[in-house]
């Protein structure tokens, strides 16, 4: 038996990201849970924000933004950036985050986040009150200590925050439970293909 919840935006887990826009001199950060990779080639990410956000205006004008993955130790800063607006607050200053220059876009990356994507807006959709920016990823940064000698990302070092939307809860990643494109092979019952 299942219980029906009706049309619901409760969805989990999602990454929790800090999307930065503006310039090194006047940067802003917004906390975004509605985010997801939508194309591999060219790598393209969707970020969705209501048209009330200060960030919506600045990303639309600028045509660029960065997506930054915060670690679990930054949970309070992440929450703060989702509570106050850049219209009235200097969130970089108040969180002690450092805006660092991107290589390909004018929007800053957040130094204290281990993984950073530089994005150029290639399209914009409106759904209800939300604006979905599609950003082509033009550069990616990762902290040196989060990759091994072969260049493979050490996820435990990145230690990203995970969000349960609807429940309003932040979690950490937990354990690896399988290798993708591999663990499913054990279900093959015939020798076909
Ligand atoms: C955990 C969390 C997730 C959020 N996710 C989104 C989101 O996906 N889209 C959105 O428009 N606002 C989201 N918000 C709200 C914005 O981050 C918040 O309104 C922020 O203050 C807007 O900042 P700005 O006005 O400086 O752009 C989220 C807030 C929190 C705390």
Automatic annotation (TrEMBL):
The keyword Flavoprotein applies. One of its GO terms (molecular function) is FMN binding. Keywords: Flavoprotein. Its cofactor is FMN. The keyword Translocase does not apply. Coiled coil: none annotated. SMART domains: Flavin_Reduct. Residues 12-156 form the Flavin reductase like domain. Pfam families: Flavin_Reduct. Belongs to the flavoredoxin family. This is NADH-FMN oxidoreductase RutF, flavin reductase (DIM6/NTAB) family. The lineage of its organism: Bacteria, Bacillati, Bacillota, Negativicutes, Selenomonadales.
